[in-house]
Design goal:
heterotrimer, A alpha+beta (about 775), B alpha+beta (about 150), C alpha+beta (about 260), B: about 150 residues, alpha+beta, Ubiquitin-like (UB roll), DNA polymerase, domain 1, 2 domains, 5-stranded mixed β-sheet, 5 helices, 5 strands, elongated, C: about 260 residues, Uridine Diphospho-n-acetylenolpyruvylglucosamine Reductase, domain 3, Enolase-like, domain 1, 5-stranded antiparallel β-sheet, 4-stranded antiparallel β-sheet, 11 helices, metal-binding (chain B), 2 iron, 2 sulfur cluster binding (chain B), metal ion binding (chain B), oxidoreductase activity (chain B), Carbon-monoxide dehydrogenase small subunit (chain B)
């Protein structure tokens, strides 16, 4: 491996660092219409009357849209493959508004000031309806959030809108109740997780213009350009060939830009007016009117025998998808499917529950995608059960966790909204990861905390797994083109959202062809020019798109050898290609530079192009072990994170520096969810934490020391042994930190975020 | 009202409204590196140097800056690239939306901080938020750039 | 706030007239995002109000002095155990500290302010353009004052001071803050309740009338928590603030007698 497993600098790094134009809004034409959205002040209401005349009379207002004058096609904005596992429940604009911040009307004006003025002139009369704000009371509530007859599921997902149920799913293997009865130790706990916000630094934004052919070109801050093309066409009711979507550089995604946001509005305004148009969310809109992590209530029952073998796991979930059901079923299923296989020796496992609609900001995809919620519940319960079994929680995990070459029935039973795929775990270094992380953080010494002052330290552990793409569904493809003088274009639909995927895909291409990475020019994510890719989600780019690139690269290498053989007048069998020189054993040779120039201009002229696709048959999980060390102030309840140590098995890290930052970044987002990022609502359902002043993401002073190491690992199905690494980092902080707090002060926090106030309260109760 | 600003070493005169911020002025002359994210002075993305000191340009009225010298990363590209190479080697340039403002603050830190220990570095830069990187790569890059890496 | 009109005052008299006509004085503007009101503003930044002076008995800080200048001042850091400089140095990020002014903090009477709590404990005075010198306590408690803050004046004597705060994350506003100053007597100020800083008068009285020992410090801290008013907001409940108040007052007292 010459070009992979190598920390080369990100190819676009320096240009981005210097602030060169690269993001959606940098490309918006100066004369773009400015779009602003009138948003609902009510959590649930029907628009009885809407009068836009006064707004339209403003000289610089070009267009005002309401539910009355936009196409009425129901879609899901989820940005998933087709048919989607999310129900179709969203119109471009509707007469019902379903959360505070939902779209009421859209104004396009020559400038922002006029657009804002126009919003104030729109007169709306609402019939205010009783909102559903408590997700535990949503099912069967007398208010039905989606009464529209058009809403439907694309295939059976348990969709039952008359009961406010967006999805329902149940599975089991073995007889859980029976096995639990025979268990020596049984723990039963309930956990709550909250609606974490993505907080991408670049707000959601989109820009559209019409080209000379009358096609709508959308430049958008999106993770899924192909899905955007499909869904915008569907919603607007226009032929898909009339739309081109380009993803420029993206200022952070984390799942928040998998779903569509402003694209409908810019595309529609441009198609109506013929003018370029742009929409950039305000920060408040990003918080209130994009997407959040799905809040969940998770009940876990877990049983073990006398020897400390986990025998049965029962996980029951109620998930809150908010006003629209983007990713409702799948996030909820992943809470089980990406956690339960960790303890694959359990004889009986049951998983199930419901996803309900409420009148809150819709939930959607967010890095970790259910796994972080499930991990918090499962890994907290594992600690509790280990205590019951009188075992060290780390030894308890070592005894019960999945090992290399093993499997779990879950893999076969649970997929993303569908059945899963059977799979043997070909690479799993969890045992190494656990031992190594234990050693780095000094677990044995630190677990015996000493309580000498108000501030007590403790250490806690959690383990995690993810997937690498959605098997049998997610497809990525790559096209490689040889140019004169021997350089290559790599065209991929894969979506670099800041992760560095353009760079690692160039590395994989270079490795496959056998040339230096400097010979690879990457162009990505343009639905007219690059081949299909499902997009940047589900930890898929390195594995799915990377495998496609590898296949295309190997094919290009073969083509080069074949053409070289022709030019040298010998058989391809006799050719060696070292990346620079194509030569025969008997001393004939031609450089790649000469060959490629010949192919364009002088001999056997042709364009060499290789194009390959990849759709995984399996989804090899990366694994991770984490140890959190905390210091708890017993007089204020404040938790300081001292140290967070993880060891990761992601197969071959294609670019170790970028892989490491993926993990570190994931950890810090997980820490944010655990300790800082609070979500509160007013009585009327309004989100109160909708600015950076009230929603606090971790600063660099809040996170202690973070240590990341990688295990030597190689997955035979991955490109050069690689598995995914984008999401796994985020999964463990809630459980590891909760376990560390327990280790420090003996209180078990089961609700996120973990607040000083709750710890102090728990400590006081414990004293009683 | 009329104000004079020196922006990236060039003297300019602007006719502004009282409500315009330094950020608004920079956008009006197509400076792309300065970005607005939180719109409440918290995130550090819109950082520029005013007379050498980092300020949140979204929260600073242009009128108040009258007569001042504003520096954005466009004027310190060479030094930025020097530091940038360390950042890029660490993989710490992720989505990079926050990076130009962060780099400017690092430039200012280099001139103003006395002790380059981890705590002092992190404290100086606490007003520059980043959601991608987890901050660790920043610190590694800064220490290499300042020549204080272990 | 939104700026309707901006005026740079050429003189204090001009600024005062604008103030009487409904304009608002702007400091650095660091917290202008906290409200949505549309106002006309007066800027005093060219009136020489940015200074730190040391006199025989006092330290004077001009209203337009930034938090960063207070943090970096060798004069200020050499008094009161450096508490004022250290506290200025933990507020928000360096960008905000470079623009936020001490006058703005005082004039805004921000409940969350850490620096106000310190100044109150240090028994600072403010000097106003028309009303002259006034104790900070009096200034904070009378919201009707329409005047221009020129400077803050702190007596040097041999004061020892300490400051403690509890906040959910590093650059967040405090959930509660406590400053203690020991001169001849103890002064205890508690802020971010979330209302702005006040003296814990009963606790001060108890402490000043009783022997200084650990038991009485604990007792004073209890009194502070039990007698002050606390409120609920997004960051914490009043009950939590009460508990934290007791803890931080105790810690601040123990620190200051070290």
């Amino acid at each position: 491996m010459k070009e992979v497993k190598k920390s080369i600098p990100k190819i676009d790094g320096i240009g981005l660092l210097k602030g060169r134009p690269a993001y959606t809004m940098d490309f918006a034409a100066k004369d773009s219409l400015v779009i602003k959205i009138l948003r609902s002040p009510h959590a649930f209401a029907r628009i009885k009357n809407i009068d836009t005349k006064k707004a339209e009379y403003l000289p610089n207002v070009k267009c005002v849209l309401t539910y009355k004058n936009v196409p009425r096609n129901i879609v899901t904005r989820a940005g998933q493959g087709y048919p989607e596992p999310s129900p179709h429940d969203k119109f471009i604009l509707d007469e019902y508004v379903r959360y505070i911040g939902d779209e009421v009307a859209v104004v396009a004006a020559e400038d922002e000031e006029t657009a804002l003025k126009a919003l104030k002139l729109i007169e709306v009369e609402y019939e205010v309806l009783e909102p559903v704000l408590d997700f535990e009371k949503a099912e069967g509530h007398k208010s039905i959030i989606h009464p529209e007859k058009e809403c439907h599921e694309m295939f059976p997902i348990g969709f039952n809108p008359t009961k406010n149920i967006a999805a329902e799913y149940n599975m089991h293997y073995g007889d859980v109740d029976e096995v639990l009865k025979g268990c020596e130790y049984v723990v039963k706990k309930t956990y709550y997780t909250h609606a974490q916000a993505h907080v991408t630094m670049e707000p959601h934004c989109s820009y559209s213009y019409m080209d000379i052919h009358g096609r709508i070109n959308i430049i958008s801050s999106t993770q899924t350009p192909y899905h955007v093309r499909r869904i915008v066409a569907e919603a607007l009711g226009i032929p898909i060939e009339k739309i081109r979507v380009v993803k420029p550089r993206i200022g952070g995604g984390y799942g928040g830009k998998q779903a569509l946001h402003g694209e409908f509005y810019t595309a529609l305004i441009t198609s109506i007016t013929g003018r370029p148009s742009k929409l950039e969310y305000t920060r408040q809109e990003v918080f209130e009117s994009s997407y959040t992590r799905h809040p969940m209530k998770i009940d876990v029952t877990m049983g073990a025998d006398k020897e400390g073998n986990i025998k049965a796991i029962d996980m029951h979930i109620l998930s809150n998808t908010g006003a629209y059901a983007e990713h409702a079923l799948t996030v909820f299923m992943v809470a089980g499917s990406k956690t339960l296989p960790l303890y694959n020796k359990a004889e009986a496992v049951r998983f199930g529950g419901k996803v309900v609609y409420t009148n809150h900001t819709p939930a959607g995809a967010y890095r970790g995608y259910g796994a972080i919620q499930g991990n918090f519940a499962l890994e907290s319960t594992v600690d509790e059960l280990s205590k019951m079994c009188n075992m060290d929680p780390v030894d308890f995990r070592a005894k019960n966790m999945i090992r290399e070459k093993e499997t779990s029935p879950i893999f076969r039973i649970m997929g993303e909204g569908t059945e899963g795929v059977d799979m043997i775990v070909e690479s799993c270094k969890l045992d190494y990861c656990l031992d190594r992380a234990k050693e780095i953080c000094g677990y044995e010494y630190k677990k015996k905390n000493n309580k000498s002052s108000d501030k007590v330290r403790g250490i806690g552990c959690a383990i995690a797994m993810q997937g690498s793409g959605i098997p049998a569904i997610d497809m990525g493809s790559a096209l490689i083109k040889l140019n004169d003088q021997g350089f290559f274009n790599l065209l991929v639909g894969a979506t670099d959202i800041g992760t560095g995927s353009d760079t690692i895909l160039a590395q994989i291409a270079a490795e496959g062809i056998g040339v230096g990475v400097d010979k690879i020019i990457v162009y990505s994510s343009d639905t007219d020019l690059t081949p299909f890719d499902c997009g940047a989600y589900a930890s898929s780019t390195t594995y799915v798109s990377g495998n496609a690139v590898r296949k295309a690269a190997l094919k290009m290498r073969d083509m080069i050898i074949e053409e070289g053989a022709k030019q040298l007048g010998c058989s391809a069998m006799d050719i060696e290609f070292d990346g620079n020189m194509i030569k025969t054993k008997d001393g004939k040779e031609i450089t790649l530079k000469e060959l490629s120039t010949n192919l364009f201009y002088s001999k056997n002229q042709k364009q060499l192009i290789s194009c390959e696709s990849f759709c995984g048959e399996v989804s090899p999980p990366p694994f991770l072990t984490a140890f959190a060390e905390v210091e708890v102030d017993t007089k204020t309840g404040k938790v300081d994170l001292v140290d967070y140590t993880v060891v990761v098995d992601c197969g071959t890290p294609i670019n170790p520096a970028l892989a490491r930052v993926q993990v570190e970044g994931g950890i810090v987002q997980g820490i944010g969810m655990t300790l800082f990022e609070d979500v509160k609502y007013a009585e009327n359902g309004k989100l109160l934490n909708s600015s950076f002043l009230t929603y606090r993401i971790p600063t660099r002073m809040d996170i202690g020391k973070i240590n990341v190491e990688f295990a030597e690992s190689y997955d035979p199905t991955g490109p050069y042994g690689a598995k995914s690494v984008g999401e796994i980092g985020i999964d463990t902080p809630p459980a590891a930190i909760a376990n560390a707090i327990y280790n420090a002060v003996g209180v078990r926090i089961t609700k996120l975020p973990i607040k000083a106030e709750d710890i102090l309260k728990a400590l006081k109760e414990k004293e009683k | 009202m009329k104000i004079f600003l020196k922006i990236n070493k060039k003297d300019m005169e602007f006719d502004i409204k009282g409500s315009e911020t330094v950020y608004d002025i920079l956008k009006s002359i197509n400076i792309t590196s300065v970005r607005k994210s939180c719109d409440s002075g918290v995130c550090g993305l819109c950082t520029v140097l005013l007379n050498g000191k980092p300020i949140p340009s979204c929260s600073y009225l242009a009128a108040k800056a009258d007569g001042g010298h504003i520096t954005t990363i466009e004027a310190v590209e060479e030094e930025a690239e020097k530091f940038g190479r360390f950042m890029n080697e660490e993989g710490a340039v992720q989505c990079a939306y926050c990076t130009p403002g962060f780099v400017l603050t690092v430039m200012s830190m280099k001139d103003n901080l006395k002790n380059f220990d981890d705590e002092s570095i992190n404290k100086y830069l606490v007003g520059n938020l980043c959601r991608c990187s987890g901050y660790q790569g920043h610190l590694r890059a800064i220490k290499k750039y300042l020549g204080v890496a272990e | 706030m939104k700026v309707k009109e901006y005026k740079r005052a050429e003189s204090l008299n001009e600024a005062y007239d604008a103030l009487l006509n409904g304009s608002v004085i702007i400091g650095g503007g660091a917290f202008m995002h906290l409200s949505d009101n549309e106002v006309s503003i007066v800027d005093l930044s060219k009136l020489g109000l940015s200074f730190i002076n040391e006199n025989e008995d006092t330290v004077e800080i001009g209203a337009y002095t930034t938090l960063k200048e207070i943090e970096d001042s060798s004069i200020i850091s050499s008094y009161f155990n450096g508490v004022l400089s250290k506290t200025a140095g933990i507020i928000a990020g360096v960008q905000v500290r470079n623009i936020a002014t001490i006058g703005g903090c005082i004039g805004g009477r921000y409940g969350f302010s850490d620096i106000l709590t310190c100044l109150l404990a240090l028994n600072a005075k403010v000097e106003l353009f028309k009303a002259g010198k006034m104790s900070l306590e009096e200034y904070l408690s009378s919201r009707e004052i329409k005047d221009i803050i020129l400077k803050v004046i702190i007596n040097k004597n041999n004061k020892k001071a300490s400051f403690f705060n509890m906040r959910n994350s590093f650059s967040d506003f405090s959930v509660l803050n406590v400053a203690v100053c020991k001169d001849e007597d103890f002064k205890i100020a508690v802020g971010a309740r979330p209302l702005s800083a006040v003296y814990a008068k009963d606790a001060m009285e108890y402490l000043n009338q009783n022997e200084l020992n650990y038991e009485n410090i604990k007792k004073a801290a209890e009194i502070a928590g039990d007698t002050l008013n606390f409120g609920d907001d997004l960051r914490a409940s009043s009950n939590y603030r009460r508990e934290v108040c007791k803890t931080l007052v105790e810690r601040a007292l123990l620190e200051v007698i070290k």
